[in-house]
Amino acid sequence: MVDDPATDLIVSWSTNNNSLVVWNVPEFAGDLLPKYFKHRNFSSFVRQLNTYGFRKVDTDCWEFANEGFLRGQKHLLNSINRQKPAHPHPHPHPHPPEPPGRRASAKLCVEVGKFGLDEEVERLIREKNVLMQELVRLRQQHQAMDNELKIVGQRIQVME
Fold first, then answer.
1. Phi-psi region of 91 (alpha: psi -120 to 50; beta: other; left: phi over 0)
2. Which of 7, 80, 85, 109 could share a disulfide with 68, CB 3.0–4.6 Å?
3. Could you read off the pLDDT of 22-33 as tens digits, one per residue?
């Protein structure tokens, strides 16, 4: 849906092609969500994004990024996985344990086959770039807040 130019006024890629932006939440929830999901609830959609490691990029709009979600890089989509909760809830009826080593070795085989060193380096570079962009944005925001604080301080001094 993000690649479809017909929906660009509702949802599209960011200008950097490294995140998705929902421009029109009511239309997105009412028209697009039901086409791709079993609900129309935008909050549920955002929770699902968070579950898969997407994070909100800009506090002023609905922009979400994930290092494995880049325009034209469909091979990276395999790196997007459901994240486990920080504090898993105990299950009343746990599954029987697997033989020791079987689960770990199967996971290792999948990871070795799925990710090579080159892909890991590329992922780390992308993550660094996203973090650097966020750092620049936060520094600018901090500078703006400092300026506003100085102005307020000056106004208080004038009033005294």
1. beta
2. 80
3. 999 999 999 889
